[in-house]
Amino acid sequence: MSAAVQASPLNRLSANLEALGLDAVAPMVPDYVRLVADGERDLVTAMLEMTEAQLATKLRADDERRIRMANFPFVKTLADFDWSFQPSVPRGAVEELATLAFLERGDNAIFVGSPGVGKTHLSVAIGYEAVMAHRQVYFADCAKLVRDLKSADDKGTLDRRWRFFEHCSLLIVDELGYLGIDKQGADLLFQLVNRRYKLARSTIVTTNVGVGRWGDVFGDNVTASAIADRLCHHCTVMRITGRSYRLRDLAASDIDEKEE
Ligand code: ADP
Ligand code: MG
Questions:
Q1: Near ion ligand 2, which residues have CB within 5 Å?
Q2: Distance (Å, rounded) from C-alpha 24 to C-alpha 56?
Q3: Which atom of ligand 1 is nearest to the CA of 82?
Q4: Model confidence over 123-159: pLDDT tens digits?
């Protein structure tokens, strides 16, 4: 006789559950067999509780997959943000963005501030809310985004990239201004922003350079103002002026010495 025929119904049930990918249910079965035998659960309630556990596992895995797809550099939420450390953050405006109403309108947001003040944290936190609301979100470091578009341009596969970026409900462009952008990069970013503008797709930008000085970043005032024009049309601009959270444990005198 084969092993399968010899196996007990309970073992075969476990094997079936594993084969079906019901890996949360499988380990629960022995306990539920006892609960049903002891009359503590009827069969339907037992099945309901086991399938609810499986469903919760599946929903968690779906959330985690969608968070991975969003390409965040880290996952932090508004609950992790210490508002008292950074009083210049317009809390009401950030919380309004977190309601995601801006996505319905295709509005944009720009966080301006020096390093460490929480620009990436806040944009990720808003993006996280959007992911949890089943919106397609993509986080891109600006320099990498430019490299990605240039390489697609050079390979003749830009159309595919445009389709991806046009489909995204929320695009986060992080660290605009940390590195200069050449003519090809600036033209490609303009096309990206313009396509999303026409489709009323929202973008969040974080930058250390005020919008009025983007000409320096793009090395060209005309392209810079064309990009700024579209991004700023329906936009919440938030300037954060506080200290770097990364340097919070240093005394002010330590920071001064570093800068000397
Ligand atoms: P920026 O993008 O402005 O350079 P980040 O958002 O990357 O700064 O912040 C740097 C680090 O400090 C991150 O780990 C972030 O989560 C944390 N951080 C910044 N500001 C706060 C804050 N007010 N409360 C809690 N954590 C913060
Ligand atoms: Mg940052």
A1: 120
A2: 9
A3: 24
A4: 999 999 999 999 999 999 999 999 999 999 999 999 9
The atom number, within ligand 1, closest to the CA of 114 reads 3
Residues paired with residue 202 on neighbouring β-strands, in sequence order: 170
> Is the minimum distance from the CB of 121 to ligand 1 under 6 angstroms?
yes
Q: Is 116 in the pocket of ligand 1 (CB under 6 A)?
A: yes
Q: What pTM was estimated for this model as a whole?
A: 0.89
Sign, Cα dihedral of 82, 84, 86, 89: positive
C-beta atoms surrounding 260 within 10 Å: 4
Asked if 209 and 239 count as a contact pair (C-beta separation under 8 A), the reply is no
Closest CA to 120 of 162, 75, 79: 75
Residues of the chain with CATH 3.40.50.300: 71-247
Ligand 1 neighbour 189 (Cβ under 6 A): no
Give pLDDT tens digits for 96-129.
999 999 999 999 999 999 999 999 999 999 999 9
Report how far ligand 1's centroid is from the alpha carbon of 119 (Å).
7
CA distance readout (Å), 157 to 153, 201, 229: 6, 22, 27
Q: Which segments of 14-97 are extended strands (E)? A: none
71-247 domain in CATH 3.40.50.300? yes
242 alpha carbon, distance to own chain's centre:
24
**Rounded Cα distance, 130 and 80, in Å:** 17
Query: Which pair of tokens denotes residue 4?
Result: 């399968």
Is 245 touching ligand 1 by the criterion CB < 6 Å?
A: yes
Q: Which atom of ligand 1 is nearest to the CA of 111?
A: 3
